[in-house]
Amino acid sequence: NAGVTQTPKFQVLKTGQSMTLQCAQDMNHEYMSWYRQDPGMGLRLIHYSVGAGITDQGEVPNGYNVSRSTTEDFPLRLLSAAPSQTSVYFCASRPGAFGYEQYFGPGTRLTVT
Amino acid sequence: AQTVTQSQPEMSVQEAETVTLSCTYDTSESDYYLFWYKQPPSRQMILVIRQEAYKQQNATENRFSVNFQKAAKSFSLKISDSQLGDAAMYFCAYEEANTGNQFYFGTGTSLTVIP
Q1: Buried b (16+ CB within 10 A) or exposed e, A16-43
Q2: How far apart are the C-alpha atoms of B40 and A19, rounded to whole Å?
Q3: Calpha distance B93→B104 (Å, rounded)
Q4: I want to staple B101 with a disulfide (CB 3.0 to 4.6 A). Which of A14, A48, A70, A81 is the partner?
């Protein structure tokens, strides 16, 4: 049981480039989320999904797209990278809503130059 | 958006002693959940403890316990018999029931354990 996996672990992009951060979980969890962590700001929710085919915006969605075609995968797309998107990105999953523990991936450190 | 405030950016504690980390939150709701997550240097986020707002009894998990004061909107974490492995960043988090998957995290408290 691998839990929540994220690839890549590190990435450097130039301004304007696009890329996809991958997230997969093997626990059959319905709920998945993407967060960004910036120094002094804690974690902020970008997008989330409550099941395959259903996504919604979190607190800071601008500049990011998501889709959920399968229960296992929840990729995060940066459409046109900006230096303000330099951050550590975490994917998380959990089996249900409201009060369930979130299981986090190891994170992706993204630098946009 | 809800706000979660951790007013102590850094704390330190002697090994085997007790330390309390503070957290306050702002909400007009009566039904919600509160969490403490730990992030060691490995960056992995780990759930420490969880509290349902409708439960008056404070949650405990081994050496970790909370002091939940609903009227004061306060949710502090007490770590007893501190160990070197407790050194980490600790995040308080709030989730409102019945409104989807919206989590709000505080800015974190960095805990140092002194041998």
Answers
A1: eeeeebebbbeeebbbbbbbbbeeeebb
A2: 28
A3: 5
A4: A48
pLDDT, tens digit (0-9, with 9 covering 90-100), for A20-70:
999 999 999 999 999 999 988 889 999 999 999 999 999 899 999 999 999
- Cβ-defined contact of B100 to A44 (cutoff 8 Å): no
Whether residue A56 and residue B100 make contact (CB cut-off 8 A), yes or no, is yes
Cα–Cα dist A54/A47, whole Å: 11
| pLDDT per residue as tens digits for the range A58-86 | 989 999 999 999 999 999 999 999 999 99
- What six digits make up the tokens of A54? 């259903």
Asked if B3 is an interface residue toward chain A (Cβ–Cβ < 8 A), one would say: no
Task: Return the SS3 of A85.
Answer: helix
